[in-house]
Amino acid sequence: MIRVFQCEDTLTGIMTGVYDAWDSRLGHGQVRLQTAQNMDLELFCEYVTVFPDLVKAEKVLRTIQRCMGEEAFEMIAYASSYPDDRKADALYRMIVLGLHLPDGREICGMLTQPEVRLVFELRRKAWHIAHRYMGFVRFRELKSGVLLSVIDAEADVLALIAPHFADRLPLENWTIYDRRRKKAAVHPAGKGWLILEEVEEACFCSQKESEEEARYDALWKIFHQAVGIAERTNPDLQSSFLPRKFRPFMNEFSGRQEASKGGRDLL
Amino acid sequence: MEYRMEQQMELSQKLAVLADAAKYDVACTSSGVERKNTGRGGGNCIAPGICHSFSADGRCISLLKILFTNECIFDCKYCINRRSNDVLRASFTPQEVCDLTIGFYRRNYIEGLFLSSGILGSPDVTMELLYQTLYKLRREYHFQGYIHVKAIPGAAPELVERMGYLADRMSVNLELPTAEGLKTLAPQKKRPKMLAPIRQVHQARRQNKQELALYRHAPRFVPAGQSTQMIIGASGESDWQIMKVAEHMYQKYEMKRVFYSAFLRVNEDSLLPVLPGGPPLLREHRLYQADWLLRFYGFGTEELLSEENPDFNLLLDPKCDWALRHLDRFPVEVMGADYHTLLRVPGIGYRSAGRIVKARGLGTLDYGNLKKMGVVLKRAVYFITCGGRQMYPVKLQEDYILRNLLDGKEKLSADAKDTSVYRQMSLFDDPRFSV
């Protein structure tokens, strides 16, 4: 009988799952990890729900950092933010493998191992999405001077991009709201950033935009128009770099109203 | 007759004119410098750079790319802003540029500023204006984002030096690869004058490197290096000449990038070529591919081209082309070949070569692994063995490989396809025979 540990789809959730699965002492072949959304039940499996536990997760993460190095640690953290049903189990297998190596740091190069390769791929995908959002996030200034941005990201990138923006705009109050996950990264001026969970978009969007906002919005649209060369027009190239799913949230491509009505319906 | 009187222009109108005038500059990269915020103003830089948007032509918009002014005393034939053209002229003030940059930067529209300029009055006057703008931005607004600024050829060396401590990247456009081309199309621009600031920045950067080794917090001089740009197809030079110049720039002046810009006929002039098929975009693409081979793959111009064979094969990318001419070096054994040999295999890039070298020390590779690691097998398959085996039997013959590589490869424009190798054979066909 295989025991399946169903964990929450967060880094804490998965790491708690890793702790519990190992701690069950059934043997690595007898346990499996799953993120909770995947509901295909199997007959000869026993299902256990794992409740995220910060203490357990921290223990696992500390061990990873100590025995497998900073690179593997980052790889695991990034991979856990990408939505993929296989990730929890792959992370578990990778950690098991890494902790059994004489030098755990070598794990990042072991791309011949399917689990490590999967984690490597997920890390890369998550980084690509995060990197794109570093560029494609558009802030608008509200009456109170707060900069607000709404995104609808495929991966859970808020925690990946927030440090970048916190470094970039340290003296601004800004918020990035993830519509798909109902989470927000909030940064008060001159302080550190934090993530709010289970918040409604209306909490942020009730305020009107500032007067300056419309002016800069118009200027940016003018610039965006002017900088393209007509003789080289190449919409295919443009959409391969900037896929259409991002555009409802970017002011140069659409009106603000459309984005706030619901970006995904537009496509 | 209508007269255009000089009048106060709106900022939006100025932006439209001066962004439009700057669009022919290729460089819009924000890479090459890593800088954390100091906590005083806004902005930071990350080494890979960030693209913030893409314009309708598919080029990245990373910086606020504008001219400070499009009033120019020069009369270069290819340039839209030449003195003899009747176009709307405008100039920013330093304050306006700062407002735009800060306003856009806060909203995450841009990564920084790209400031170029027409020559207003004299090179010194123009450079002084650019300097004032940058000074205001860096010292008054404490802006710490990316700044790319043009060094104006002919400006005083002190100005170039002062500017270098404020900017991240400086560039001087070579415009045309050869001095003769420059003489016909841009008679007021002189090659030695253009090279002077390049040389100066290069030397100052070297000196600065030593200072930084001694004092970690010494001010950094042009930390993201220099770049330059050449117009392709305006004055009839060969790819070999262009690549030679680029290689020289990389080796002698340690340039970060050389950009190539397919010639666009924006002015009517008898000295400019007529290009009925539009700008030579495919040629530009091949030059960029070769440029990458120079910078990351350890190739030299002499290997890719020669005086007898001065142009790239438009049908094949330069690396495949090279490999086909050097079949004696293939196949390469993936499990055994060193990194530099792997780099020369078509379909293996510098990242996948690195991954192969790392992974094969820890396990045996097969073709499935290679594919997952990012090797493009449809090209690489002709040139590699893995564990002593080919993926499937392929002949190591030039014709065979060429035919297969061209099958379903990248989309080529119609005029390039016409010169394809496919043609009806006749009994008397002999490639060595020509009338």
Verbal overview:
The complex is a heterodimer of chains A (267) and B (435). Helix content of chain A is 47%, strand content 13%. Chain A is of the alpha/beta class. Chain A has 2 domains: 2-128, no CATH class; 137-266, no CATH class. In chain A, α2 packs across α3 (87-100). The longest helix of chain A has 26 residues, at 54-79. Chain B has 2 domains: 11-230, TIM Barrel (Alpha-Beta Barrel); 318-410, no CATH class. Chain B has helices at 11-22, 94-106, 123-140, 157-164, 179-185, 191-214, 239-253, 281-296, 301-304, 318-325, 339-343, 350-360, 367-372, 377-380, 398-406, 414-418, and strands at residues 53-54, 60-61, 63-67, 112-116, 146-150, 169-171, 226-232, 257-262, 332-333, 384-385. In chain B, the strands form 3 sheets. A 6-stranded parallel beta sheet of chain B has the order 3-4-5-6-7-8. A two-stranded antiparallel ribbon of chain B has the order 1-2. Chain B has a two-stranded parallel ribbon with strand order 9-10. Chain B is globular, with a radius of gyration of 25 Å. The chains are: A alpha/beta (267), B alpha/beta (435). Chains A and B meet through α4, β4, α5, α7 and α8 of A and α1, β1, β2, α2 and α12 of B.
Number of strands of chain B: 10
CATH top level assignment of the largest domain in chain B: Alpha Beta
What is the CATH topology assignment of the largest domain in chain B?
Answer: TIM Barrel
Q: What is the average of the pLDDT values of chain A?
A: 89
Shape of chain A: elongated
Shape of chain B: globular
Strand order within the widest sheet of chain B?
Answer: 3-4-5-6-7-8
Binned, the helix content of chain B reads 25-40%
Residues in β-strands, percent of chain B: 5-15%
Structure described in brief:
By secondary structure, chain A is an alpha/beta fold. Chain A has two domains: 2-128, no CATH class; 137-266, no CATH class. Chain A has helices at 11-23, 54-79, 87-100, 114-136, 158-168, 202-205, 211-226, 235-241, 256-266; strands at residues 2-7, 31-35, 45-49, 140-141, 147-151, 174-178, 183-187, 194-196.
